[in-house]
Amino acid sequence: MCVVYWTTDDPEYSLILASNRDEFLARPASPAQWRTVHGRSGNDLTMLGGLDSLAGGTWLGVTRTGAFAVLTNVTEHPRPEMDEQGRPLCSRGELVMAWMEAHQGPRPRDGADVLQDLFRVRQRYAGFNLLAGCVQGTEVRMGYVTNRVEATEPDILAVSGSGEVYGLSNSTLHTPWPKIAYGKSALQHVLSEPRTTPDELIERLFGVMSESQRTIHVMDDMQHTVHVSPCRLPSNVEGTRLATADELPAGHRSWYGTRTSTVLLISRTAPARALFVERDTYALPHDGQRAPVRLGSCKEHERRYEWVVTTGQCDKHGESPRGRPEKCCG
């Protein structure tokens, strides 16, 4: 159960994006950092983002050239295990990698062509939403691919001039959950307020992403809250009722909730500057016996990166001619 809100129509920023990753707290993953991974085409991909240690993909990533993508799963009960041809489903996290990989190197591919490629192979995956974008001058161009609506091509999202705010969770873009309306309204309020520094905007965005509108008693409650407080794995076949402490013994409770929140800003300047901040939200104690703990906003639980967005060729280590991105802290 993840959620992302964004706008491409701010006077200062060509992209303002805020996202929560909701996941099982025990699922192993590494935090956001600059990393070089082996891409699907056989080339190395240099990206900033977290990494799922089980499947090897990512849920949100960005490159030094400003290509970025966010993935959300489409909630389905029961979850499919095979595609229409009876083949095991691929990891959805590789879709984010594929988008970024196509925009790296001396001859990055056209974004519309990449979206078409991903659209053609969409049925090889369990239900997903892929939000993808790239920097073009002082604007950000975005597209959307899903495999849970009848469509003949991916959506190219228009650059709005009316201050439009968008949101996406675990249903499709055009059938939003109730939490999308709340988050869009909250983000519009944040954007309407005067601000003097990027940090002021960042803290307000994290405030939106930390709001809990409803206590989680059943699975459907997650459709109504931006921030998911830890709850236990569903215990019935339909996946609608949450387990009780008696049903899941201590030390084996499948705790689920908002693990990280991320803000990505790309300035409307030439050259553009990108600012990426990821914060941990909940974690399991090391002894595995106690309930999850909520983490604060101190630097110990934050990764912050800022760099100049470039479109030039990178060398074999992924360094831009403009120099290394600055890791501010964390």
TrEMBL record:
GO terms for biological process: Golgi organization; protein secretion. InterPro entries: TANGO2. One of its GO terms (cellular component) is Golgi apparatus. It holds the Pfam family TANGO2. This is NRDE family protein. It comes from Malassezia sympodialis (strain ATCC 42132) (Atopic eczema-associated yeast).
